[in-house]
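G., the chain you wanted modeled:
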Amino acid sequence: MQEVFTALLEARERGVTCHILADSVGSFSFFTDDWHERLTIAGVQIYQSLPVGLFKTLLKRTDLRNHRKIVVIDETIGYTGSFNLVDPRFFKQDKNVGEWIDLLMRIESPHRLSVVSALMTVCLTDISAESQQNLQDFNRRIDDRINQYTRRLYKPDPAINDINDTPNRLSGLLDNLGNLPNLPKAVTNSLPNTLGTTSELETDVDPTRLTHATLTGVRMQVIPSAPQLTGHVIYNTLVTMLHRADRRIRITTPYFVPDEALLSALTTASRRGVDVTLIVPKKVDSFLVQHASQAVYGELLDAGVNIACFTGGLLHTKTVVIDDDYAIFGTVNMDLRSFYLNMELSLAIYTPEAVAQIAQCQAVYLQDCEWLDHKVWQQRNSAQRLFDAGIRLFSPLL
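Predicted structure as tokens:
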């Protein structure tokens, strides 16, 4: 993390405007760290997302958290995925789960309307919601943007330069507020995980050191979600696509606590002949989530779902691959908290070449997995089954 903070300080020295929005609970140690003061003094604008406190708890819900991971640079480069700004070698090592394994996507586009501008819009919307002053700045820039656009649109006898002029970069991050959040195409996409075709995969690839070739013309869509605002759009998208699958479904998730509809979508798909594979860590950092997940393994195995337990660390990647032409990539865990309470962000990917790259990453994870045996799992004693089932009753709270 020190390298990231140092880079931010150097950017400020070059006159770059820098914003950080971090969840108040998840980044609690950052807000009490010396780096927070150093960055603030240097002019980095830092915001707490969904702040908590003793008195705030009486007036606001503290269980709603911002789980998005987004970086936008110069309005042309964006990053998103499962990667938190922590060092995976040291994060929660007291939980004895090994190194955290994550996946991050880099997206580039020079166009004003793109996936990158959509990511920026999500960031700006989150920042504006944190204070009245932020919201006023947000609205002022929107008004300025609309007025500029209206004057240009109705200018009599416009010259070609009046129509095609480049937006003023000095407006910074807020210049593209007129862009919509759901846009279908990104010009360039690369994943830090690449291995050629599935048949060419090596057998000893380190999942923490993978790289992917850059693809161009990738078609994708940004899907943000937030409680009471987006109608659980990511959850509804996922369940719909699971029912649509014809050949295969492959899911990687660190936390798997499904509701009945999601569980039914997976088991029904398997029973109608779809190859369904669930890749989860063998051990996670939450005792309760571990047992709530195990409570549904029997039902999945009964339906023919393959369950692979990753042994190379805590697999924190969140990906879904359906057939060969659709993937979901982002921050969403397969649990009720992510679907209904957290502010999340996913990418729906439609380009087969990009889908294949994500599938190849999943194939690498499978090399470090132990497969659950249906017969062995059925032989667990009654006390274990009862305990798991009891923990599952609390799944809406996990």
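The domain at 222-391 is CATH 3.30.870.10 (Endonuclease; Chain A).

Shout if anything looks off.
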